[in-house]
Amino acid sequence: MEKGVRGKMRERAFTVFFMFALTLVFVSAVSALHLATRDTVARKAGMYLKRAVLAAAGLDGGLDDAGVAALYDAAVTPEPDAARPARYAVRDPDTGAPRATVFPRAFPGLWGTIRATVGLGPDGATLTGVAFLEHNETPGLGARVTESWFEGQFAGKRGPFRLVPEGTRSAAVDEIDAVTGASITSRAVRDMLNALAREQTQ
Amino acid sequence: MTSGRIKRIMLGGIGRDNPVFAQVLGICSTLAVTNVLRNTVVMCLGLVFTLALSNLTVSALRRLMPARVRMMAEVLVIACYVIIVDIALKALAPDISRQLGPYVGLIITNCIVMGRAEAFALSNPPLPSLADGVAAGIGYSCVLLVIAFFRELLGSGTVWGARVLGEWWTNWAIMVMAPGAFFMLAVFIWIVKGAIPRAGNAAGKESGKQ
Asked: Which helix (H) or strand (E) holds A129?
């Protein structure tokens, strides 16, 4: 009897010890991997914002990561400070003249928040571009906002904007193509752009 | 450990005991990631890696592991391998990592992984367990790749991002959404079950410890 109780105690102690040891080994391994790759992961994640800021200013053009980083450093100044930027002042990398002010925007789409960058030219009203950073829109419908025909249609346009059926936009400065089958997403984009335009003209 | 046994395990996981169409396990990710072929391939590689190594690890620890904490231990092992996959994707293929979003992390809760650990790895030596994990992973991958191929083709008119159907093709939006995966999976299971009529019953039950 005495022995049985002690045996049970030992078994329980081993169970606890086993879980501790296993956890320690595996969590250490994962932590080590995380620490080893943390900088790479953060750098790659940061590239999306840099690309989006440059694209919104109309400065993208098939650059690799290093090219984007160099161009970003040369052309972009986060304002009011780099830690919590409210907007990005973008200068022309060759002449140094002001080219655009890029605003990060978060607004509700159909399924979740859409994050985008919107560039306005020096006049404060004409768009230089729009880039979508993050969204949870329906694949094949609302998610098509990230396709180049949609993202690329904004340069030179100025609000207030009107949506027209996909593929029918004319040269008129206020017409933008909607995405077929994604009315809510399209309207959300239009409203966000109009709200920004209103904010800037006040 | 005969190579004949390993071969039987491998064939079982891909065919007769295929986790998706024979056991209908792990279909949540089948629905979520199969709208584009490229993402599906990455997801499948992640799952094969996790399944193989978690089976191997659980099997190696099986004599040491106290029975009452075995599920905790299995989940811990599985979770660690999945996090490794997730970190590797974030560092090496951030685009795909962003598109897959939470689904890589959700491999942890994929019933196939835990199911194979419980059903096979706990009662078999490491090498057959490794083979069983790889087989179940490949079996899962085969189904996913077929579904993804048709969903991408019908839903976007492309294969691996390259346009194969011309401008005349109208995309079936339903195919890129989750219901499309349900239809494809159902049709696939129907065809496969019809094509192999009960061949499984005659063969020996090698991995029949489910």
From this structure: strand A127-134
3-state secondary structure of A130: strand
Measured in Å, how far apart are chain B's first and last C-alpha atoms?
21
Q: Rounded to the nearest 5 degrees, what angle is found at the Cα of B83, between the Cα atoms of B20 and A21?
A: 110
SS3 state of residue A116: strand
Q: Give pLDDT tens digits for A76-95.
A: 988 887 777 889 999 988 88
B10 lies in some domain: no
ipTM topping 0.85: no
Interface contact flag, B76 A44, Cβ < 8 Å? no
Closest Cβ–Cβ partner in A23, A30, A140 for B84 = A30
Q: Tell me which residue range forms the domain holding B32.
A: 17-144
Structure tokens at A45: 């994640």
Q: Is B102 on the interface with A (CB under 8 A)?
A: no
Q: What is the pLDDT of residues B113-124, one digit of tens each?
A: 999 999 999 999
- The contacts of residue A112 (CB under 8 Å, 6+ apart) are A135, A136
Q: Is the pTM of this model over 0.90?
A: no
> What's the total number of domains in chain B?
1
For chain A, what's the residue count? 202
When CB atoms are compared, the residue of A22, A33, A48 closest to B76 is: A22
